Automatic annotation (TrEMBL):
Transmembrane portions of the chain: 36-56, 68-90, 96-115, 124-144, 150-170, 182-201, 213-236, 243-261, 267-285
Name of the protein in its database record: DMT family transporter
Gene source species: Streptomyces alkaliterrae
Main location: membrane
Topology of the protein relative to the lipid bilayer: Multi-pass membrane protein
Stored InterPro entries: AA-Vitamin_Transporters, EamA_dom, EmrE-like
Annotated GO CC locations: membrane
Top-level taxon of the source organism: Bacteria
Family recorded in the similarity comment: Belongs to the EamA transporter family.
Residue ranges constituting the EamA domain according to the UniProt record: 8-140, 152-283
């Protein structure tokens, strides 16, 4: 059963979308100097260390048994596989199309949650996702041409399924503190990413440019630790499909931050696409009429 929408959940939802929106900009700066998987491994390795220190300072116990196995599986899905596939896709895939595909996460999470009997199929959620995807496609001006690399698109769709299934999985696992879940999950993912980076022949070099260090710092603290702790908090209060609407707000934040930090021009498409995105989020995640239905679920 999903809880009704509440102020702490709304604040966490908005903050997670804001922090996640800066990730693409941070990755863009990181990729200019670091090989992709190596950069991802550094990011999640450092984030895991930070979260483990927070665990120790807060005296949070390490999970055991099924809870530990679940946290490891969550990390491999939500961080390891997702970001391996995303980085591969971004080598050849247009960023706009990538953001549009990522906006399918709420629909994928809803369908997976329905299939696994966690949620009911809500027509408004399906409509909200489709409206939001149209808005994201408009805002990012995603190219819909025939020269789109099929393997890259399939990789991005795989990343969407991994994110969605990880969100659904959390609801079935023994309850674990969000800091602990992310600490264990990012540790497992970092090990996998380091192994993948080694297998890919990446250069294991630390950044030299100050901009890269700033980007990594953001990706570790705000883009990883804060974003995913808040995301798990929202999943626990709202359910997988609603929490996943974070991913349809991300492109708007990314475009604004890119214009500010990376001198990318703002276009008029933002004026038309952003309202569609917000309407989709409202229909799928925030509409008050959902509350009565949820209580009856």
């Amino acid at each position: 059963m999903e809880r009704g929408l509440d102020r702490p959940g709304l604040v966490a939802f908005a903050a997670a979308a804001l922090f996640a929106g800066g990730n693409a900009v941070g990755i863009r700066f990181s990729n200019r100097e670091l090989d992709a998987l190596w950069g991802a491994a550094l990011r999640f390795g450092a984030a895991a260390v930070l979260l483990l220190l927070i665990m120790a300072a807060s005296r949070l116990a390490l999970p055991r048994g099924r809870a530990l196995a679940g946290a490891v599986l969550f990390g491999l899905l939500n961080f390891g596989l997702t970001f391996s596939l995303t980085y591969y896709a971004l080598v050849r895939l247009h960023a706009g199309l990538t953001q549009t595909i990522l906006a399918l996460v709420p629909l994928a999470a809803l369908l997976l949650a329905v299939a696994q009997r966690q949620e009911r199929l809500r027509p408004a959620a399906v409509a909200g996702t489709l409206v939001a995807v149209a808005g994201v496609a408009l805002v990012t001006q995603a190219p819909l041409r025939s020269a789109v690399p099929v393997l890259s698109v399939l990789a991005m769709l795989g990343a969407v399924l991994c994110l969605a299934q990880a969100a659904v999985l959390v609801r079935r696992l023994p309850k674990v503190h969000p800091v602990t879940m992310n600490a264990v999950g990012m540790t497992a993912a970092a090990v996998a990413l380091f192994a993948g980076s080694l297998a890919a022949g990446d250069r294991w070099e630390l950044p030299v440019r100050a901009a890269t260090w700033w980007a990594l710092g953001y990706l570790v603290v705000a883009g990883s630790v804060l974003t995913f702790v808040l995301y798990l908090f929202v999943i626990g209060r709202w359910g997988a499909s609603r929490a996943a609407y974070v991913f349809v707000l991300v492109p708007v934040v990314t475009i604004v931050l890119s214009a500010w930090l990376d001198d990318e021009p703002l276009t008029g498409y933002l004026l038309f696409g952003a309202p569609l995105i917000l309407l989709g989020v409202y229909l799928g995640a925030l509409r008050p009429a959902h509350r009565a239905a949820d209580r009856g679920a």
